[in-house]
Amino acid sequence: MELFSFLLIIPIFYLLFKIWNWINDVRDQQCYILDYQCYKPSDDRMVGTEFSGELIKRNKNLGLNEYKFLLKAIVSSGIGEQTYAPRIIFSGREESPKLEDGILEMEEFFHDSIEKVLSRAGISPQEIDLLVVNVSMLSAVPSLCSRIINHFKMRPDIKSFNLTGMGCSASLISLDIVRNVFKSYKNKFALLVTSESLSPNWYAGNDRSMILSNCLFRSGGCAVLLTNNKSLKHRAMFKLKCLVRTHHGAKDESYGCCIQREDDKGKMGFHLSKSLPKAATRSFVDNLRVITPKILPVRELVRFMAVSLLKKWNVVRHGSSHKGASQGPIKAGVNFKSGVDHFCIHTGGKAVIDGIGISLDLTEYDLEPARMTLHRFGNTSASSLWYVLAYMEAKKRLKKGDKVLMISFGAGFKCNSCLWEVVRDLGDGNVWKDEIYMYPPKTLVNPYMEKFGWIQDEDPSTFNPGD
Question: Could you give the C-alpha distances from 232 to 23, 34, 287, in angstroms and in order?
Fold first, then answer.
């Protein structure tokens, strides 16, 4: 009998041992943000109203109709006049960039933000195990990863990934790489570096679908320090809960709506087609379909299914054109605020922010961080999410246990999203600390129409842009 009991206990202990190992492994696969640092260029790179006018006048390929189009675009863009541009723009060489211009633009950001985030976290560059850099529109040899490794003298066994061509949603693609590496290795530090090089990508032609990008994109970047070391979770700022990536590259319309190409005169630029909103909506809906069950409580999912079934039953019973339904249509929308406290939205433009706000039934309070980031820093491509997050932190909105949903879009066409949990109360100003008291301003109306509105009354036969 004792032997039987002993033989019975062995598999029970073995099962408990395996369960413990599994729990321990899962704990080691967590992804935490220890710190992050957004980049704020120097004031001599600030793009004001006067300079914008001078910059546009330098393009000799523009006519009156193009001027009117640009004025309408910038006035309705949601961008203010304190955004930043690369140095090549201020030296008047935007139409003849060199490879060195793009590299210097990136190195200026790398050296500033990486040094600050590592210093603040008390982490040496030699402690970094994984480096992921995403800069879509600049490819250099040696890679940007190698340049960072050389400058900071990182270890020879560091794992590095250099991403190009991934567009404005590249931050979460980089994060996905970090997350997957963390699943295989314990107690590691990762550095995620995200930015965009604008120096070699100014469009000097007159194709409206391509000059629009000159109005929207601005300089910026962010360095993010992550770890899966559970002993450091008390120091962490955020914990990654889930991440979902959606890619519609197989659809020709989606693939071609956001693409770098040459115009009919051979000038390189970034084409934004009229099908972009439709492509963004499709990818957004598909992405939400996957991430929604992961981030919302069961009660909200049950409510949504019940309301949806009731709506379908009413349609079957009365017909879609039934006139006697006095109570009106039943809404079957999901309440995302039942599982999400804050919404970190890519600042692709005012229309992007408005569209997401309508789709998720968000208030102006929810959209404020994205609107203010677009107004102050413009569309900084893949790094924009972190400026939005920094705004929430500077406003002291982020409390322990809060959930933050990040949503980004990018060429390809892609929609990527993830959910963070705030690990401790946060309130550092990051890049906003010296000016957060000024936001939100009383109005977001920029002065471009006031300054250049006279263009609307010009006669095409007598218009001279040099006057």
Answer: 18, 8, 32
